[in-house]
Amino acid sequence: MALDIQNLTKYYKTTLAVDEVSISVADGEIVGLLGPNGAGKTTIMRCVTGIVQATHGEILVDGLSLRKREQDVKRRLAFVPEVPNPYEMLTVVEHLRFAAMAYDTEPIFDSRHEELLRRFELHDRRNDLVLSLSKGMKQKLAIICAFMHDAKVLLFDEPLIGIDPKGVRELKDMIVEARANGCAILIGTHMLDTAERLCDRIVILRQGRKIAEGDLDDLQERAKMGEDATLEDVFLTLTEVDTADEGPGVPSA
Amino acid sequence: MRALAYLQLRLFVNSIKHIARSPKRLIPAILLAVFVLPSLLMNLAIAVMGVPRYGSYGHKEYLEGLQAEALWSGVFALLALVVVYTLYNALSEGLLIFSASHIDFVFPSPVNRRVVLIFKLLGDYSKYAMYAGFVFLFVIPPFFGMAGGPVFPAALYCWLGTVFLLILATNVSHTLNIATTYTASRFSAAGAVVRTAILALVAATVLAGIYHYRQSGDALASLVASVYAGAARVILAPVSWCANLIVGPLTGQTAGAVLLVAALGLLAIASALVLLARPENFYEPSLGISGRMARLKAAGGNLAALRIEAMKRRRNASYSRSPVPPFGRGASALIWKNLVTRTRASRSTLAILFLLPPLLAAAVGYFAREPEIQRFSPFAMVYVVWIVSSASQQELRSEFRQVDIIKAIPASGFSVVAAQVFSQWLLVAVLTIVGALSVLVFIPGADHYFLGIATLGSLTIGFVCIAASSVPVLLYPDARDKWQLLIPTWITMIVLALVIGPSAVICAVLAVFRVNLAIIALSLIAINTALSWGALAISGRLFERFDPTAD
Ligand SMILES: Nc1ncnc2c1ncn2[C@@H]1O[C@H](COP(=O)(O)OP(=O)(O)O)[C@@H](O)[C@H]1O
Ligand SMILES: [Mg+2]
User: Fold this and answer.
1) Whole-number mean pLDDT of chain A?
2) ipTM exceeding cut-off 0.95 for this assembly
């Protein structure tokens, strides 16, 4: 397994954000992390990238423990945050160079950044300050930063919100290409149609707990719905908070 | 390491270029340099060459009447306050806060966490070095010269000692903060204990001072007594070393200065090593705080947004009924809206408004028994109002950012700006009236004629100041740009200094001749109406072609 999250629990002070969640993503697999707002998607990604410390649980990347080999693990990860805040006083190219330096991949910088800037149509803005970019452009910049090194595990937090159709197409292509190259990819989203088409497997979270996991067939079965039920139907059925406080618990496989 | 160095360098170079490229930013920056640099250079020259004219005075003459002990206690108390405040803050969440950009692009990267911390600390340390350098290399050295002592190494020692002291305090508080925030809860309990101990120490020192004052009635002696009596001096030994360094050149006791500097330096380094040895992941508090900050910045980085954030966190507050009945048409409806939002969102500000003046007046009435101080005390009001008015710049900025609403109002730019200024002024008016009543009640020795002048002066000066500060706000409307926040602050300072000139002259001249209050009132109102009208006309025009999103 390229990414192995084992029994992850995260408290922010006293708020329980993630409760004993285990997720694994194999090489060449795209896993969709679905859940309503506040389900804990962002928190899981932050734990994996070491931005916050897991309260308990273990995170392994390529068999290396985040706790013990933090820098080696981080070198293998790429992360695109939900609403990126790039450095406004850097130019686009400087920002990319900084990312390359941080991940120690300067040898491939020249060829890599040219190509990516063209793909995301930021090439003519390359020497502008980030300050002058629109919100969608900043998001594209964050995506390009993530591809400035060859990560083994890619983490995207709501990646498709705010970018234009051409950008969405490029990103999807790049995600599929990365899968072909053997990367493990975890996408947190609530854009269900994208998840349905792009992901090999889906994990549904609610209130910090994993409530279902599998491909669409498995999920339909679990929601006791027929073949023609869409992911949206399944998602809404599964995440409906019917049993008010009493959580649904992790399904017994 | 290299990545962060590159980042800092580019950020610095780009922000310089950013200023240099736009005349709107460059000109005020040059003006500031022109105003500040010569005086700095002059002080530096004095510091290096000594003070020839006063050189013949020995420190004994200079210090005649000035008690060395009182001086030392004052310096010690000031430094101790800074250090204790830093340590106290150590125990609250969010001492070590990184930018939202750092969260997104440095935290997930393989850059070593200790390196991230080192860069952060170096940034803070160099700020201390700059501020302390400003004080100890430029402002204070001439006094050393006047005292007849050596200027040059002494100033350098003061500077180094103070910087080391600040570094030490920062390191200790970061260490405490990290240890109590991220480890088991028994350490958090330790945090509460330390906090209580600090409060107790401060309270004991203050009480000792008050007790001495009740006994002796001498304020200076009480300060000395409280500082010497409290355990403060022992516990805060490094602070007292630093106070020795600063007061030494004035009293002629400079022996051992090198040793004190070296001791402070060693402590600074040792504390940095202890801090860097902490294993915890200290990234987390930045999330909550910087997330909030990022939203604030998007909202214009102002107080109103901060209060609204605070309201959001106050969950079950219900605001169904408006405290102010609706009034107004067109632009004057803005006044109603501002009143409603203010009475809702800034209750604590309003409370301070009504509590602070009586408290201050009572303190003056009780402690400052000298008749001259009491007689002239009303004029302090004008000063307070002036400060408050200059602070209203931030509020105006936040109001003008709601451009979708206020631009859509079918009224002239002049009346919209006037309505905004008037709403801000209401606050000042309330403050003035509460202040005047407080002086009347609590300061028996206050001159009532002066009180009248000060009240009228505050009311009119307040309005003209707020009107004038609307001009720089509208000239530099983009709050996302740090320079667009800084530059109008400088301009406002200059404009406000100019705009109160006429009022100051009128008050001074007429007050000397004890001219009838009505005449003073009329002249103040006349001159300030003219000035305000001018300012509002300018900002009204600016408002009409105002776009806060364009640069
Ligand atoms: N910095 C933080 N401090 C405290 N609580 C937080 C913080 N970030 C998230 N939370 C809480 O953790 C829970 C999960 O949030 P999050 O992971 O952002 O969910 P999602 O990304 O699925 O919308 C929510 O209840 C949220 O309020
Ligand atoms: Mg999220």
Assistant:
1) 88
2) no
Same domain, B219 and B347: no
Judged by a CB distance cut-off of 8 A, whether residue A149 touches chain B is no
Instruction: Tell me, using a 6 A CB cutoff, whether residue B287 lines ligand 1.
Output: yes
Spell out which residues of chain A touch residue B7, defining contact as CB-CB under 8 Å: 87, 90, 98
Chain A touched by B22 (CB under 8 Å): no
Q: Which residues of B are less than 8 Å from A79 in CB distance?
A: 108
Which of A113-117, B222-226, B276-280, B444-448 has the lowest average pLDDT? B222-226
- Ligand nearest to the CA of residue B286, numbered in listed order: 1
Comparing alpha-carbon positions, the chain B residue that sits nearest to A80 is: B104
Mean predicted lDDT score pLDDT of chain B? 79
* DSSP secondary structure letters along B360-392: HHHHHHHH---HHHHHHTHHHHHHHHHHHHHHH
Asked whether residue B358 falls in the same domain as residue B257, the answer is: no
* pLDDT more than 90, % of chain B: 19
Q: Is the minimum CB–CB distance between B204 and chain A shorter than 8 Å? A: no
pLDDT at B38: 77
Q: Which domain holds residue A181?
A: 3-76+152-245
Which strand ranges, in their side-by-side order, compose the sheet holding A3-12? A15-25, A3-12, A56-61, A64-65
- Test the A interface: residue of B93, B109, B289 with most A CBs within 10 Å: B109
Quote the minimal CA–CA distance from A220 to chain B in Å: 36
* Chain length of chain B: 551
Per the structure, the count of domains in chain B is: 2
Residue B110 to chain A, least CA–CA distance (Å): 5
The helix (H) or strand (E) run that includes residue B141 is: helix B141-146
Task: Identify the residue whose tokens are 């049993």.
Answer: A243
Q: What is the pLDDT of residue B250?
A: 77
* Whether B116 and B196 share a structural domain: yes
**Residue closest by Cα to atom 18 of ligand 1:** A42
Q: Are residues B72 and B149 in the same domain?
A: yes
A209-214 β-sheet, strand order: A77-80, A153-157, A184-189, A29-34, A201-206, A209-214
pLDDT score for B432? 92
In this predicted structure, what is the pLDDT of residue A253?
Answer: 36
Closest-CA residue in chain B for A135?
B298
pLDDT tens for each residue of A122-149: 999 999 999 889 889 999 999 999 999 9
In angstroms, what is the span from residue A186 Cα to ligand 1's centroid? Answer: 18
Q: Closest-lying ligand to the alpha carbon of B292?
A: 1
For residue A173 the two structure tokens come to 């292509």
Do A45 and A159 sit in the same domain of this protein? yes
Instruction: Specify whether A230 is located in the same domain as A114.
Output: no
Reply yes or no on whether the pLDDT at B366 is more than 60: yes
Measure CA B388 to chain center.
12
CA atoms within 13 A of residue A210's CA, in its CB half-sphere:
23
Split at pLDDT 50, 70, 90, the class of A94 is very high
The predicted structure's pLDDT at residue B184: 56
Across the range B131-148, mean pLDDT stands at 76
Specify the CATH number for the domain of residue A163. 3.40.50.300
What's the confidence (pLDDT) of residue B551?
44
Dihedral sign of CA atoms B480, B485, B487, B491 in order: positive
What's the domain range around B122?
Answer: 2-286
Number of H helices, E strands in chain A: 9, 10
* B103·A53 Cβ contact <8 A: no
Query: How far is the centre of ligand 2, averaged over its atoms, from the C-alpha of A40 (Å)?
Result: 7
Domain annotation covers residue B159: yes
Look at residue B454 and tell me whether its pLDDT is greater than 60: yes
Residue nearest to atom 16 of ligand 1 (CA): A40
Do the chains contact at B110 and A46, CB–CB below 8 Å? Answer: no
Ligand 1 atom closest to residue A10's alpha carbon, by position in its atom list? 12
Single out the residue of B438, B283, B295, B279 nearest to residue B361, CA to CA. Answer: B438
Q: Are A104 and B111 in contact (CB under 8 A)?
A: no
